[in-house]
Design brief:
The protein is of the alpha+beta class. Helices cover 34% and strands 36% of the residues. The protein has helices at residues 3-19, 22-27, 57-61, 68-71, 126-141, and strands at 29-37, 45-48, 76-80, 84-94, 100-112, 115-123. The chain has a 6-stranded mixed β-sheet with strand order 2-1-6-5-4-3. Strand 5 (100-112) and strand 6 form a beta hairpin. It is globular and about 45 Å long.
Length: 142
């Protein structure tokens, strides 16, 4: 597949995440898809294949994204090639106390045979994100 087709695959993946269409998302991923997140995050580290028992991005963010405003990722393709797409997107959330997080993320995505094979995310301000999530966990426990 070429760059244009890979861009369309990635934009459809972002739409499926925003719509909370888990089946469509899974259909667009290889069975052994790899995800790489900053290690300092609750869902940090590397994972391969279907979600396991450790916390996932979805476990963390779905409760913090009750509406369309928080779910909107505003993906913008920065670069694309025959097997990679780079996308700048927004991570948004709101906790029960009304504190909000809105930060940019750069994702490097490998697309093979029309499906996502590997994703690596780079948050611009991981410290602010960790602080927001720590406060959120504290809110949930009280």
């Amino acid at each position: 597949m070429g760059a244009s087709e890979n861009v369309q695959v990635m934009l459809e993946i972002f739409r499926s995440i925003e719509r909370r269409d888990a089946q469509r998302f899974l259909d667009l991923c290889h069975a052994d898809v790899e995800f790489h997140w900053p290690p300092s995050l609750p869902y940090g580290g590397a994972s391969r294949g279907r979600p396991g028992t450790s916390p996932t991005w979805s476990d963390t963010w779905l409760p913090l994204q009750p509406g369309e405003t928080e779910r909107r990722m505003d993906p913008r393709v920065v670069a694309a090639g025959d097997d990679e797409v780079v996308v700048l997107w927004r991570q948004r959330g709101i906790n029960p106390d009304g504190d909000r997080f809105d930060g940019p993320v750069l994702g490097l995505y490998q697309v093979l045979e029309g499906r996502l094979a590997r994703a690596q995310m780079f948050y611009f301000d991981t410290a602010a994100l960790v602080s927001f999530l720590a406060k959120t966990r504290g809110t949930a426990e009280t």
